[in-house]
Design a protein that fits this description.
The chain is α+β, with helices and mostly antiparallel strands. 21% of the residues lie in helices and 37% in strands. The longest helix is centred in the N-terminal third of the chain and has 11 residues.
């Protein structure tokens, strides 16, 4: 991946196979769980009741799966800050439960690029990303997301740039 602009990458900064520099890891706490529940109203039983989760086989308190995905998505904002539009999320797989105290890291890899039609004289392109979130206990979630990005004003599309 090319050098990042101050506010995030433009379309021409991405390269197929490039890995976006990761944002700092985050450790999920009980306070995170409680705040997430208070803000969203999500009452996931095992995330709200640690004793019920432990009785079902958990070893600690369960991190709310919605919170885990919010952190995962948030850890990819360095790749999407300049997005004109987030077009889709797909192939979302939450692979295992995450417990309070686990530290999450997320990587984003560029899977493909495609020029898009200019609008109001601005060239644009689509960036397809593969996202993987891990903790010290292995992979937590995997998914893909695609966003439309603008380009620097002097940039012109190459012929057939796609991936």
């Amino acid at each position: 991946m090319n050098q990042l602009h101050e506010l995030g990458p433009m379309f021409e900064d991405f390269e197929v196979g490039g890995v976006i520099p990761p944002l700092p890891a985050v450790t999920i706490t009980e306070a995170d769980n409680a705040l997430y529940r208070a803000v969203t109203g999500d009452q996931h039983r095992f995330a709200a009741d640690a004793s019920a989760y432990r009785a079902a086989g958990g070893t600690n308190a369960l991190a709310n799966p919605g919170l885990v995905m919010q952190y995962s998505i948030g850890q990819t904002t360095n790749a999407t800050r300049r997005a004109i539009a987030n077009l889709y999320y797909r192939s979302v797989r939450v692979l295992r439960a995450v417990e309070v105290g686990e530290t999450l890291t997320t990587t984003a890899t560029v899977l493909g690029l495609r020029d898009a039609s200019p609008k109001d004289g601005q060239h644009r392109g689509k960036v397809w990303l593969g996202i993987q979130t891990r903790s010290g206990h292995g992979t937590v979630a995997e998914y893909e997301r695609c966003g439309r990005r603008g380009t620097c004003p002097r940039w012109r599309p190459s012929s057939g740039r796609s991936g």
